[in-house]
Design goal:
By secondary structure, this protein is mainly α. The protein has helices at about 5-15, 35-50, 70-80. The protein has one domain (about 5-15, about 20-80): ACP-like (Non-ribosomal Peptide Synthetase Peptidyl Carrier Protein, Chain A, Orthogonal Bundle). It has three helices and no strands. Helix 1 crosses helix 2 and helix 1 (about 5-15) packs across helix 3 (about 70-80). It is globular and about 35 Å long.
Length: about 80
């Protein structure tokens, strides 16, 4: 499973209480009110476990979590920096 699909599956699991689900990697998660700033904490923790990374505090911005594409870019950047 590709990285974006793993992220999408994780986010859909986190928002499972909602009747909505994410079907596009470009959808604005905040604009569509699928997640809020409080959900970022759960998302960060889950992403760190799933991808065995540490997301620096300064990277925990709304912009970095606005879409699956943005999250994927952030994770790829962290993974590249860890090489």
């Amino acid at each position: 499973m590709c990285q974006k699909n793993k992220i999408m599956k994780l986010i859909n699991t986190i928002i499972e209480d909602s009747s909505d689900s994410i079907s596009s990697t470009a959808i604005d998660l905040f604009e569509e009110e699928l997640i809020d700033s409080f959900a970022i904490v759960e998302i960060v923790t889950s992403l760190e476990k799933l991808f065995s990374i540490d997301i620096p505090f300064e990277e925990m911005t709304i912009q970095n979590f606005r879409s699956i594409d943005a999250i994927d870019f952030l994770i790829s950047k962290i993974q590249k920096n860890n090489e």
